[in-house]
Every structure is written in structure tokens, then in C-alpha cells.
Amino acid sequence: MKDTLEALVEKAQNGDQKSLESLIIEIKDLVYNLALRMLLYPMDAQDATQEILVKIVTHLSTFKGDSKFQTWVYRVATNYLLSEKGKRGKGFAVSFEAYAQQLIDAGHSETIAYTQNKGEQLLLEEEVKVSCTHGMLLCLNESNRMVYILGVILEFNSIEGFQILDITPENFRKQLSRSKTKLRNFLDAKCGIANSNNPCRCYKKVDYLINRKIIDPKNLRFATQKKRSIELVETIKTLEKSAAIYRSTPQYATPETLVQKMKETIKLLES
Length: 271
Hints:
This protein is an all-alpha fold. The chain is built from 14 helices and no strands.
């Protein structure tokens, strides 16, 4: 039977290297996806994930079981992400007003000129959708962004938010309400996925974003061959369409190169 996280922690704290490696493998994706949503760019998220996992490994002895281990992991991760700003994402962050202007500047091309291949076009449309919604998160300040990710996307309640962020449940709820309102209002007013009356469509932005080198069609950051998140949103019948847009974004696997680096780090720390 597979060990629980808490069982792996206990064994790792007692010096079991295999359990420590298994523990890192179990939590790596939740750390990476949190970092990706906060920092936008995969390379920044990879760097942050490695730093966070090293902190978890080197400070594992301080975990006393006062909360779920996953909660403690999120606490370590959020502390790091709120203090360390992504190099690339920081320059991309703008106000909601400026972001709205960027969407206008991107135009409304009715066709994708870059390629006539339908499969490529669908991937590029998905790349725009995920890039755009991640970019919108950067319109929130770091604290509100983290609260939105925890409260809406990961669906933590205010008590869990308090345990992770060390802010009162009331403060967590207030920040969450503000963040939800800002994103909901923006999506309802600008996004064609959230509101079909809006002219904005992801495929209409593809050529502009490629020409501006914001999207590299040869090196897509987010789009995969799996079911598209755009289609997942369209199947969800809910008034809270903005939340559905973010929850539909797939979970990404931590790059294998980072996993290997962590295994090497663990061996060095144990030697």
C-alpha cells in the first residue's frame, strides 16, 4: 500500500532518503503549478519550484504535524513566492485598464494567418487562452493574486487560507471577495469565453501575439495535445464563469530535468 504524505514525512525525518525522494515527487506538481500561476513564465516557475523544494527538504525537521503536510508545503511555497518576484512576469504585470487596452491593440483578425493546419490553429488558440488568463492574474497585486489562486482555483476555505498565509480568515475572505470581483468584472466586460456578447476571441489574437513575440509557435508554454481548456469551460453551465475559466486550466507536470536536479540535491544533502 502506498504511504500517505504524513507517513513519508515521518520516514524522511528519520533519515530515509527513498521516502524523501518519494515525498518530493508527491508534492512537486502542486508547487510548480502554484509558482506558474503566480509568475506566468515556466522558466521562472521552474527556478522558484527548485528553491521551494530545497527549502522544504532542508527545513523538513521543523514540520511538527500541527497542520496537514500539504498545508505546510503551501505555506513554505507562498512565503517564497510572495517575497521573490518572477523576473519575466514582473515586467508583464499591468493594471486592468492597461490590459484591456492591450486586448484592443491585439485587434480582431477573423482568421489565423500563421498556419492553415487546423491542429496547429487549435493549439495556438489554447496557448492564447491560457497565456491571457494567466496574464490577467498579474493585474492583481501579489497578495490578492495568491489569495485568488488559493481561494478560487485551488478552492481552499478561509480557515485553510489562514493556515497557509497567516492572515485572519476575515482578511482572507475580504481579499478574496475583492479579487473575485475585479477578475469577474474584467472577464464579463472583455472576455468572449466568459461572455459571448464580447467580440474578443482567443483565435483572433494569435497572429498579433506571434508577431509581437509574446507567443512562440515553435515553443508553446501552455498548450498540449490533451483536451483543450477552452472546450472544458464551454461545457460548464455556471454563473461563476470566471472561476470556471481558471479551474479549467490543466495541471502541468514538473519538468523532468528539475526532478533529476532535486534527486541530486537530496543525495548531496544526505552525503
